[in-house]
Amino acid sequence: MLVLGQAALLAALVSSAWAFATGFLGGFTGSDPLTRSSGRGLLASGCWLALASTGLAVALLTDDFRLEYVVQYSCKNQPWVYKLSAFWAGQGGSLLFWALLLAGFGSLAVLFARRTPADLLPWAYSTFGTMILFFTGVAALVTNPFQRLPPGTIPPDGAGLNPLLQNFWMLVHPPTLYLGYVGCAVPFAYALAALAAGRLDSSWTRAVRRTSLWAFAFLTLGIWLGGYWAYIELGWGGFWAWDPVENASLMPWLTLTAFIHSIIAQDRRGLLKLWNLTLVTITLMLSIYGTFLTRSGIIQSVHAFTRSSIGNGFIGFLLLVGLVALGLILWRRGQLRGEAAIESVLSREASFLFGDLLLLGLALLVLILTMWPVISQIFSSQPVTMEPRQFTQVTRPWFLLLVLMMAVGQRAAWRRTTPRHLLRALALPLAVAGAVAGALLLGGGRDPWSLAFLFAAGFVATAALSGMIRLFRPSTSRLSPAPHPEPARLQKLGGLLSHLGVALMVAGIALSTGYRREAAFEALPPGRSVTFDNYQITYGGFDLVNRPEYDGVRLKLAVTAPGSDQPREVMPERRVYGRTRQPASEVAILTTLWPHSVGELKRIGEDLYVIPVEADFGRNTATIQVIVHPFLNALWFGGILLLAGTLLAAWPTKAVMSVPADGNSTAGMEPR
Amino acid sequence: MSLSPKVIILAAVIILAMVFLLVLTVASKDGVYYLTLEEFQAHPDQERGVRIAGFVLDGSIQKEAGGLAVSFVLRDQPGRHRLPVRFDARSAGGRIPDTFTDSSQVVVAGKLDPQGVFQATQLLAKCPSKYQARPAPAPPAVAQP
Fold first, then answer.
1. What is the pLDDT of residues A90-123, one digit of tens each?
2. Between 20 and 30 A from A574 (CA), which of A584, A620, A634, A654?
3. Is A653:A550 a contact under the CB 8 Å cutoff?
4. Contact check, Cβ <8 Å, B136/A358
5. A532 contacts A512 by C-beta, under 8 angstroms
């Protein structure tokens, strides 16, 4: 199986090179047989990479310690799902995984070729071929997961996967994020094809609309899972730390968000063509950069940036992608003019333009701050790093503006809106937003940024909700009718639902970070009760837990939430895993989804987060840290709504449904 | 694509304001130097905060206050340079990471106090050397924002 896997990897190298070359020639000569051959090359790459992946999976599942990769990331008593998840735990395996997904998307493009304009196909195939070739090449030649240990040095057992990664969330988080990253390659392939073929109308953006939404959905889910995992598993009580790896996933998410919105302008009015090409290229580059950042192990020490074994290859490939796209854009610049003009600041198309600008700007700001340790060396003898606080400081105003724009863009009409009409359309959202922020102010919330973001969240949520109501109850309006027929209602509903989700997420982030309260309780003796933020916490000793994978101490706490008279059991655990004696804390979280009394209404969606710090075996005492996160669950729930809305907008519709002539929807509702 | 002058002006204002805020932040003295232990000990009198990467000296960890605070000795890879460090989760906010154990690779941020002890306001720990290969595309196994 090892030999087969290794051979399949090399075969994939050949067939992807074939797909590239024949696609390229097919594009030049317009020869159909060559194009079809290129498509078959992509399908073959997909099969070979599937075979190679099976080889690695079998090696992991059967504890084949002849492979260095298996020794590094797996061990005998690991449950089989975690043996399998070791596939994408290391550099070589995850590059193989990237190539496999890429070939999978390429094969799908071949299978659904009939839906795409024929002149785009050879160039799209050729682009897929190049990308597969690169990732397979790095996996086969630089960090080969089939690398064998010299005979005689084969250990009886492996090191095993880090226990922090041995949980459900870490099982699904990496492949989800990868599907998102690799999914960005599909719109890019068609963008390059559109440039090469010189077909720069909205045919390519239509072809990639749904795939882009799927990529966005996976990227969103991946980031959501990562944040949730960090929150429940890492135990520092946060979900986002502006860590380079997190930023690496945020940047393509931002630019992809801009892309899925601004292709609507190209579709509807033939506008923003240059923007869309630029956004999709940058999104792909950021996805590749993200993979590289995650894979190259430069996490804590940016010093090691260029020392990574795959660093130069990745930088070279990024340059290639950027230069090819730039060259093609310059070559076709004459065709990239919009088919109409942006006439007014107060129009849907202008709001897309400003949204693009803000999202791309935010991605660049995050990139600059993340790379600051490298950039600062230009003028400082020592690298300077940016603290999370500074990331927040630089990006916060633009996120606020962006959230406000979400509601304005949703209600501005195409071409132009008068300020009076726009104000009238936004009167209710503004009133609700003011009421929500006012309530927080009256409740004693004084943090200006939390107030501002809560205002923005109320604004967007109300605009989205009223949009949904109008979607099903059309009313007459004084605004001019739309220049084109409205897209399907389902797509609009998806867009509005996503906006509602984002509004909830914004409110959850604003309140949980702005009004977070924490305390530490040292050496509590059994039976001792403490009160924190009206939560009554009683410590009732601890139990010892023995499991095959770990030994643990389980603290027994009884917590009475404010306004409740029923104490609930809360049991955080300190664990020590396996042979490596790796310690891990299992935090306990008491969620108040609905308050126990009217007076405690502010506790909706609040978490009490209990971190076990230490248990003293001699004196039976325990030390804990507790954090209260107000409204945090709105973040998780909003993320699920955002995902649901995206999937709804990406849902296959047989035909564009006819929407009743709905004047108000000019002011309306695009899938955003 | 033709744009109305107002659109262009508004776009330009957004871009300039973004750049301005960025420059303001990075030019402030808030950013911290990222040093090796050797570089830090050559110039320990840093005005702005520093971040130092190193390893925990085996057996040097002393926990206090029921595990809410810790003192330990930071060493560089060859072990030639050493620095006493103290981190108190109560005053610094955050907590001591699970991955903080003997020989684990750590990054500390903070300043030297007059007694020559490095008072850390941040303590990040990578997985122990057993897991030097980075395990997954995820937020790293560190325990602090």
1. 788 888 999 999 999 999 999 988 888 888 999 9
2. A634
3. no
4. no
5. no
Calculate the CA dihedral of residues A247, A251, A252, A256 and round it to 10 degrees.
140
Confidence class for position A487, pLDDT limits 50, 70, 90: low
Residue numbers in B near A393 (CB within 8 A): 25
Give the DSSP H/E element, type plus range, for residue A82.
helix A80-85
Token output for A566 = 């029923």
Closest to A127 measured CA to CA, from A64, A190, A65: A190
CA distances from A425 to A253, A428, A463, A478 (A): 30, 7, 9, 11
Q: d(Cα B12, Cα A398) in Å, to the nearest integer?
A: 14
Handedness of CA A539, A540, A541, A545 (dihedral sign): negative
Low-confidence ranges of chain B (pLDDT < 70): 1-4, 27-31, 45-47, 126-145
- Which residues of chain B make contact with A382, given a CB cutoff of 8 A? 33-35, 39
* From A230, A342, A354, residue closest to B14, measured CB to CB: A354
Count each helix (H run) and each strand (E run) in chain A, helices first: 20, 11
Kindly state the average pLDDT of the residues A241-256: 91
- Identify the pLDDT of residue A374: 78
What per-residue confidence (pLDDT) applies to A296?
Answer: 57
Distances (CA, A) of A579 to A234, A551, B73: 21, 11, 25
Report the mean per-residue pLDDT for chain A. 85
Read off the pTM.
0.89
Instruction: For residue A601, give the DSSP letter.
Output: G
Residues 300-319 (A) with a CB less than 8 A from some CB of B: 300-303
Q: Which residue has the higher pLDDT, A569 or A422?
A: A569
Residue A463 CA: distances (Å) to CA of A17, A416, A504, A665: 50, 19, 13, 12
Predicted pLDDT of residue A663: 37
Alpha-carbon span A129 to A22, nearest angstrom = 10
Whether A520 and B89 have beta carbons less than 8 Å apart is answered as yes
- DSSP element (H, E) containing B117: none
Q: What is the pLDDT of residue B3?
A: 65
With beta carbons less than 8 A apart as the criterion, state whether A178 and A221 touch. Answer: no
B35 has which bridge partners?
A: B52
pLDDT of A252 reads 96
Interatomic CA distance for residues A599 and A603, integer angstroms: 9
